[in-house]
Amino acid sequence: MRKTVFTTIFVVAYAYAFAQTKPAEVSPKKWFEKIQLRGYAQLRYNRLFETNPALKCDQCDKSLGENGGFFLRRGRLILSGDISDRLYIYIQPDFVSSPSSTFQHAFQIRDAYFDLALEKNKEFRIRLGQSKVPYGFENMQSSQNRLTLDRNDALNSAVSNERDLGGFFYYAPKEIRSRFSSLVSTGLKGSGDYGVFGFGFYNGQTANREELNNNLHKVARLTYPFKLKNGQFIEASVQAITGKYTIATSTGNKLTSNTFDDKRIAGSLVIYPQPLGFQAEYNVGKGPEFDPIAKTTTLQNLKGGYVQTMYRIKKEKYEIIPFIKYQYYNGGKKFEIDARKYIVKDMEIGVEYQVKNYFELVALYMISDRTFEDYTKPVNHQKGNTLRLQAQFNF
Hints:
Elements: H1 2-21, E1 36-48, E2 71-82, E3 87-97, E4 106-117, E5 124-132, H2 137-140, H3 153-156, E6 163-171, H4 174-185, E7 197-202, E8 217-227, E9 233-246, E10 259-271, E11 276-291, E12 296-311, E13 313-314, E14 318-332, E15 341-355, E16 359-373, E17 381-394
Antiparallel strand pairs: 1-2, 1-17, 2-3, 3-4, 4-5, 5-6, 6-7, 7-8, 8-9, 9-10, 10-11, 11-12, 12-14, 13-14, 14-15, 15-16, 16-17
C-alpha cells in the first residue's frame, strides 16, 4: 500500500515537472508593443565673437542676433513602428517649438502620418497626414543628421519647416529602400526613405497653418542613390512644386489680391562622405516677393542654392567631420510678412564631433551678408560674423 502511494506521488510529480518544462505558447504582440520610442535635443549658443547684433534669420534660428542667448532649438520624441504588416505610423512632436522670437518652448506636432503599403514588399506606399514635402535633399534630411545648423534659405523657402498636411505616393524597390536606410544608419548623413519616385498633393500654407485658399499644392520628386563598384554612393535628384500661396501683409501693403502663384523646380547632387563628400542643390521659380521701391508685394523670379564639401574621419569611439558651405538666395519668403525680400550670401566653416551615437558637438563660424526687406523696413542690409555652437543629445 505504501509503495503504491509513493509510486503515485512520483508519477504525479514527474508529470507536473514535465508540464512546467513545456515551451509556453507565444502570444502575438499587441499593436502598442510594436511602437519604438526615440528622440533628440539640441542646445545652441550663437553669439560668440558676434560683430553685428542686427543680423538675424527668423527662418533659420530665432536666437541669432540682438537679445539672443542660450536656445533650445529642438526637443523631440518620435513614436514609430509597423503596427501591422501593411500599416506604419510615425508621430513626432516638438516640445520646444518657437512660433515667434518672443514665444518659445511650445508643444507642436511636427509629423503625424500613416503609411499604407499596397503590397507585401512595401515598395508602393500611400502616406496620409502631416509629413515632409518631398522637395530637396537637405529639406528631407533630418536636422539630427545634418552637418550645418540650419537648412539653406533657397530650397527651404519653398516649404517652411519642410512639412505640410496632405497625401503622397512613394515607390522604391526593396533593395533601394534598404540602401536609403543604410545611408542614415551608417552615419553617411542620408536623407531617409522618400522613395525613388514620389508625388502628392498638400494644402500649401506649410505645417500647422490653416489652408487659406481653394488650391492644393502639387509636388513630384525623382531620386536615385547609385552605388559605384568601389562602394561610393552618389545620389542625384530632380523635384518640382506648383500651387498658390496666400501671404500675410502689413497694414500699408495695399494689394488687390494676396494670393500668388508658387512654382519651383530644383536639382540635387550628393556624393556621400567616404571619406570626402560633396553636396549641391539649386532651384529656380516664381513666387511672391516684396518690392521695396513699389512698397508692395508682386510676383517675381527667385533663384538660389548651395554647395558644401565635407570630410569624414571615423575612429572607433568618435567621428570628426569638418565642412564648408556656401549658400546664395535671391527671392521672397512667402511665409514671412509681405513675402519679405531676401538676398542671402552666407559662408559657413565648421566641424562636427560625434561621440558614438549619443552626443554631437558642432562649432561653426558664419560669415553672413543678408538683405531682408519688408514694408516696415524697406531698406535693411546687414553683414556680420559669429561663432555658433550646438550640443546635440540622441536617445
